[in-house]
Amino acid sequence: MAEKQQSAYAGNGYIRSGDTEAAAAHNMREQRKKKRNKCILYILLFVVFQTAIITVFALTIMKVRTPRFRIRSAAITDFNAGTPASPSLRATVTPEFTVKNANFGRYKYRNTTVEFFYRGTRVGQVTVPNSKAGWRSTKKFSHSAVELSLSGSPELAADLTAGVVPITSTARMGGKVELIFIMKKNKATNMNCTMEIVTATPQTFRNISCK
């Protein structure tokens, strides 16, 4: 009689207790699976985010760029030029230099010798003392005067006649870049500048171009 009654309940749409427990267990497994998938997704997103941050950090902040050392301008005093028949050149030059540092850390540079040439012949030199350029900045500074002197050059006679005397300057500056006070890396920069002295108005260098 009891078995018939239980079968009747089942036939009338009632759920057996065993089926209820199985359904509850299935739902619990599904919920755990969803939580596990969410956790894995969050971990993957975090890894991708961290990788992107590290990549940007390495390509921007931690990238060491070569500083730039240049002659910005130069005032000329005590200028004396000879004649085409007796060519000579004497001038006192006070150059202004710049050190451009694009790194996220200061650039400490060593003593640097700057040489001045007239068509391959050295006519003067000056030593820039060691110092430092702040991070992401351009350091501008003037130096003591340097004497330029030349005589007896056959090419100088033609340049004095034309009224324009070409001058070049070269230097190699060595130093260290200190990235956010963590990493230090040696970095050297070359300077190669061309300029002109116009004998009619010899107050400054004209047409300064550096690379």
Automatic annotation (TrEMBL):
GO terms for cellular component: membrane. Residues 97-194 form the Late embryogenesis abundant protein LEA-2 subgroup domain. Keywords: Membrane, Transmembrane, Transmembrane helix. The keyword Transmembrane helix applies. It is found in: Membrane. It is a single-pass membrane protein. The chain crosses the membrane at residues 39-62. This is Late embryogenesis abundant protein LEA-2 subgroup domain-containing protein. It comes from the Eukaryota. Its main location: membrane. It holds the Pfam family LEA_2. InterPro entries: LEA_2, NDR1-like.
